[in-house]
Write a structure and sequence with these properties.
With about 260 residues, this protein is of the alpha+beta class. It is about 20% helix and about 40% strand. Strands 3, 4, 5, 7, 8, 9, 10, 11 and 13 form a nine-stranded mixed beta sheet that branches. Strands 1, 2, 6, 12 and 14 form a five-stranded mixed beta sheet that branches. A hairpin with a 4-residue loop joins strand 4 and strand 5.
Length: about 260
């Protein structure tokens, strides 16, 4: 064996040891990770809420949605010891992209008792200028004429609308008092093993979004009376109340 070969083998050993150490580190991190997964199911008239499908609201008004997007974010998990895991991110849910119905985030293992999350975009992000990712203005959810995000966009056609081509448009937003459209939503977990999240496991929370309540909530919304809401204000805040009432936790489990 010549001197050149003698130099190759130690070098190869060093490379293999470095690679093994890196893999061990990655595996160790993966073993320590746990996950929160939110699965959303928008529904209306006891069926999936989909683009270009026909529905009727509680007032018998026929409607066909063409666009439906909204922001969820700022997820916070509370452990039974009182500590809080905060996930500072926003997600744009779009019913033309079913992949957006599944939100998955890394969290620490532990016994969890409570989940809190937010509809809308917080005031700091609303005035932070051009942003990227789900908050990119190119996604069509930012008012160019008024600093701030559109939290929810529901558009479509209805025979009850008095607008051209029977259009209805609800662009809901606003973060300033007294007509903030930001809403906080919550889910409690049972005080047993159902909230115990171990390393490598996923806490999956299934949320139903019952769009019947969008029109039939605490603030009745008839398309014939109000076919468009396009600015922040009292009516937008009322519709935000209705939309918050659409959310309910159907079940949750650790997998």
């Amino acid at each position: 064996m010549n001197a050149e070969n003698n130099m190759k083998y130690p070098l190869l050993s060093v490379l293999l040891l470095t690679l093994f150490a890196a893999c061990s580190k990655d595996n160790s991190r993966e073993d320590k990770a746990a996950w929160l997964e939110i699965r959303l199911s928008p529904e209306m008239n006891s069926s999936a809420f989909q683009a270009n499908a026909n529905y009727s609201n509680i007032y018998g008004e026929l409607l066909r949605p063409t666009s439906f997007k909204f922001y969820l974010g700022q997820f916070k998990l509370t452990k039974t010891d009182g500590s809080i895991v905060s996930l500072d991110q926003y997600n744009l849910v779009d019913f033309n992209d079913t992949a957006s119905f599944r939100i998955r985030m890394e969290v620490s293992p532990g016994q969890y008792s409570h989940l809190q999350y937010q509809f809308g975009v917080d005031s700091a992000r609303n005035v932070s200028g051009v942003q990227s990712g789900p908050l990119d203005p190119l996604l069509g959810m930012f008012w160019t004429w008024n600093s701030g995000y559109i939290f929810l966009k529901l558009e479509g056609n209805s025979t009850a609308s008095n607008q051209a081509n029977g259009k209805f448009e609800y662009h809901i937003g606003g973060f300033r008092s007294p007509y903030s459209a930001i809403r906080t939503l919550e889910t409690d977990f049972a005080a047993d093993e159902s909230g115990q999240l171990g390393s490598g496991q996923t806490l999956r929370v299934n949320l139903s979004v019952q769009m019947d309540n969008f029109f039939a909530g605490a603030h009745p919304l008839r398309i014939a009376d109000t076919a468009t809401v396009m600015t922040p204000g009292e009516r937008a805040a009322q519709i935000a109340d209705n939309f918050a009432a659409c959310f309910s936790t159907t079940n949750y489990q650790v997998q």
